[in-house]
TrEMBL record:
Localization (cell): Cell membrane
Transmembrane segments: 24-47, 59-82, 89-113, 119-141, 148-170, 176-198, 219-241, 261-280, 287-304, 310-334, 346-366, 372-390
UniProt superkingdom: Bacteria
Keyword Protease assigned: no
Alphabetical UniProt keywords: Cell membrane, Membrane, Transmembrane, Transmembrane helix
Keyword Transmembrane among record annotations: yes
Chain ranges of the Major facilitator superfamily (MFS) profile domain: 24-398
Protein name: MFS transporter
SUPFAM superfamilies: MFS general substrate transporter
Topology of the protein relative to the lipid bilayer: Multi-pass membrane protein
Amino acid sequence: MTTTNQTTTEAPDEPVPARSRRPAVAAVAFGAFLLVTAEQLPIGLLTSVGSALSVSEGTAGLMVTVPSLVAAVAAPLVPVLVGAMNRRLLLLGLMALMTLANVVSALAPTFAVLVASRVLVGIAIGGFWAIASGLAVRLVAPANVPRATAIIFGGVGAANVLGVPLGTLLGELSDWRVAFGTLSALALVVLLALLAVLPPLAATRPVSPRLLGEQFGNPGVRVGIITTFLIVTGHFSAYTFVSPALQQLSGADERFVGPLLFGFGLAGMIGNFVAGAALARGTHRTVLLITVTLAVAIPLYLVLGRGPAGGAVLLIAWGLAYGGVSVGLQTWMINAAPQAVEAASSLWVAVFNLSIGLGALVGGVIVDQLTLQAVFGLGGACALVAALAVRNARTNENLR
C-alpha cells in the first residue's frame, strides 16, 4: 500500500479540510526555516562573536553544539512535560521562547549569557520539531500528507541555501548582534503567522514515558530510528569535512567551494520535493532508493571525485539524495506509528540531533587519527547498513 492510503491522524474525529489549513502548513514551514537558521547561524559568526566577547573560535563553537544537544533532550522531554496541552498553544509558546532567546543573544553582555540564550534556543528547536515534524497529518487530507511534509521540511533546505548565508552576510556587513536581532524579529513574525492560521490541535494522546518506551516495540519505528542514526551520523562524519575534500581530493579552487556548497544545498531542496512526490507512491521503495544512492555516492567520491568536475557531479548527487532523508524518514515514522505520531516523531528528532553531533565528532577523530578519505568510507558504510535495514523492514503494511 502507499502513503496515501495508509496515513492516518492522531485525532481521527477531527476534520482535516485540505484547503483551509494549507496556510498553516506554510506557516510551519516558515517556522522550520527559522529554527534551522537560528541553530546554524553562529557557524558564520564565530570569529566576530569570539572577538567581541573575548573567547576563542573553538569556545565560540559552543553556540552551535549546545542548542543541538539541548534539542536532542528537549524533543522527547517537552511533549512529556506539557501533557495534554493544546499543541497550538505549545507551538506558540515555543516560538515566543525563540523570540525571547534571540533578543537575549543580541543583547548578551558576556559569552556565558549568550550560551544561556542558546540553551533556550535548543529547547525551542527540540520542542517545536517534535510537534511540527509530524503535524502534516493533522493539517491536510491523507492524500496530501507527503506533499505537506515535504513543504515543511523544505524550510530546512531553504535555511541552508538562503537563511544561514544571508544571516552571516548581515552579520558581516553590520554586526553579529544585528543578525541575532533580525532572527528575533523573524521569530515574532512566525509567532503572529501561527497565531493567525494554526487551528486548535488537541492532544488526543498525550506523550508519556510509557508511550515513548512502547515505540521501541514497534519494528517499523525501530528500523526508522536505526536508519536515521546511521544515515545522519555517516552523512555528517563526511559532510563536515567536504570543504577540505573539495580542495585536497578534487583539486577545486578555494573560490569555488562556496558556490559548490550552495549547489549542494539547492540540490537538497530539489531532492526534498522529489522525495515528497515519490513517497505518495511508496514509502519503503523511496527510502530504500535514498539510502542506496547515499551508499553509492559518498564512497564513490573517492574514485570519481578526483577532479573538480567529478567532485562537483558527485556532490550534487549526494545533495539530491540527502535532501530526501528528512521527509522520507519522517514519513516512515508517521506510517510506522500512525496512532502515536507525536511520540515516534519526538524520538526521531532526538536521534537526528544527536547523530548530527556524533557524526561531526567521529569524523573529526577519524580525520585527525587516520585520513580524510576514511570519513567517506565510513559515510558509505553507514548508508549501506541503513539500506540493508530498510530492505528487510517490510513487516508493517503501512510502510509499503
